[in-house]
Amino acid sequence: MFSGVGKSHDEIERAVQLGLKAINAESAGELERIDRAAQARGVRARVAVRVNPDIDAGTHPHISTGLHINKFGVPLEQAGALYRKMATQPGLEPVGIHVHLGSQIISTEPLQRGASAVVRLARELRDGGIQLDHIDIGGGLGISYDGSRAPTAAEYAAAVLPIVAASGLSIALEPGRYIVGAAAALVARVVDLKEAAGGHHFAVLDAGMTELMRPMLYGAFHRIVAVAPRAARDMCYDVVGPVCESTDAFGERRLNQLEVGDLLAILDTGAYGSAMSSNYNRRPLPAEVMVDGGKARVIRRRQTIEDQLAMETE
Ligand SMILES: Cc1ncc(COP(=O)(O)O)c(C=O)c1O
After folding, report:
1. Catalytic-role residue among 197, 228, 244, 309
2. Cα(224) to centroid of ligand 1, in Å?
3. CA pair distance 302, 232, nearest whole angstrom
4. Atom of ligand 1 nearest to the CA of 272
5. Which residues pair with 254 in a beta bridge?
6. Is the CB of residue 193 less than 8 Å from the CB of residue 229?
7. Rounded Cα distance, 24 and 289, in Å
8. Does the active-site annotation cover 236?
9. What's the CA-to-centroid distance between 61 and ligand 1, angstroms?
10. Which atom of ligand 1 is nearest to the CA of 174?
11. 153: closest CA among 134, 173, 133?
């Protein structure tokens, strides 16, 4: 499957060449570009239209993708016409319908509504003589970052499977965060402690928005715990990163009194942590360590300044 709201010419060429299970098309124009690329190679590209069903997934606005104001997909009511047009586009083979409502969705209800919307469309298409092969219900299942309840995979399956099974089509899904979110922690060292005016305490870490962007990008909450808690009184800290932006802050936390050199673990950073990291301020990407049972091994070494400069030319 290949999804993406802005597929470049080269990406479309490559996807057509690879003969993917489906290219999830985002617009009428993109379908035309895929058609041309496929005809030029003398093949038919398997495509699904990503529909935008205008469903509020109840998630943060910056990670909602299924509302009509979002840039994603084709309005549901326009999709039927696109599928009918495909009959005149020799480079296209319609095989599925795609929907992805957003990320960190912690109620199964919008996911059910999204699945129902695409199943309805598949039925209408079948009645009009267009038989598809699969329904792709995207990803989006959320996890608990703060200990509150979030749906389990079994609850998700119980909510959406009966809806999709009734269509008789096969089901594809694209969970990301649910699989990897809880699998990682960002371990950072306290490099400075200081008291600002008004008795505000800052704990400055050696990791910030360059290693974990989510809190700064959309106010995401991650639990922060001391790696080796000491018996000391609780204090309220503004836990911040080292980058030259005031937005470079993880938030206020109550922690046992810290000392410079302490290690803190920022939890549940497996999704959209490393993948969103950057070299801003020329900061090298951190090492990644796999902990497998009782064993730990480096699976990606720390980036060096030489690594970064190696890509530059005079
Ligand atoms: C099309 C599509 N499918 C699946 C995902 C994975 O989402 P999540 O990690 O919320 O399950 C994304 C995330 O951006 C996406 O854009």
Report:
1. 244
2. 25
3. 33
4. 9
5. 236
6. no
7. 34
8. no
9. 15
10. 4
11. 173
